[in-house]
Design a protein that fits this description.
The chain contains six helices and three strands. It is mainly alpha-helical and 168 residues long. Helix 1 packs across helix 3 and helix 4 packs across helix 6. The longest helix has 16 residues.
Length: 168
């Protein structure tokens, strides 16, 4: 088994409705969430913030507000973003400047697709060090096992293939 920290989730508190919030208010809320959960995918931060602000769904206008606030936070150095696989900011991995860029953690309430690719790569590396001649499918199944998951779906295979091709 790979040594992992426990995934710490942000303790929900009421946040301002993002539809009516200023960029500064959104940045402040994102900072709170990232402080607990970072490094974390931007889409997860937006979803958590929306729920804490009383919304069940993020529509285009709200997404634009989040993206504007994210750009503000990046410009001011409040938040650091790492582009994992796309120019789409919702897929960027966010952290605060003092946080480590990679933290191997338990799954928590994240989906495997919300786990940063660099975190998955660290898990893969440790598995490969212990099992040099492991096949691709065996590697993927061991990664799933590390997160107490069983189903190797097409989407999961694609995600793990991306990690394998990018970092190995």
């Amino acid at each position: 088994m790979v040594t992992k920290e426990n995934y710490v989730e942000w303790t929900p508190t009421r946040l301002v409705d993002p539809r009516a919030a200023t960029a500064e208010q959104i940045v402040h809320g994102m900072e709170q969430i990232i402080s607990a959960e970072g490094p974390v995918m931007a889409s997860r931060v937006f979803r958590i913030f929306s729920r804490a602000g009383g919304l069940n769904r993020i529509y285009d206008e709200t997404k634009r507000s989040f993206l504007h606030a994210l750009r503000t936070a990046l410009d001011k150095g409040i938040i650091v973003a790492e582009k994992e696989s796309s120019e789409d900011p919702t897929t960027w991995i966010l952290r605060l400047p003092p946080q480590k860029s990679v933290r191997v953690r338990t799954l928590g309430t994240r989906t495997l697709h919300e786990v940063p690719a660099t975190e998955l790569a660290e898990v893969m590396l440790e598995i490969r060090v212990e099992n040099e001649l492991i096949s691709r499918e065996e590697l993927f199944r061991k990664v799933l096992g590390e997160y107490d998951l069983n189903r190797l779906t097409e989407a999961t295979t694609n995600r793990l293939d991306f990690v394998l091709k990018t970092w190995f």
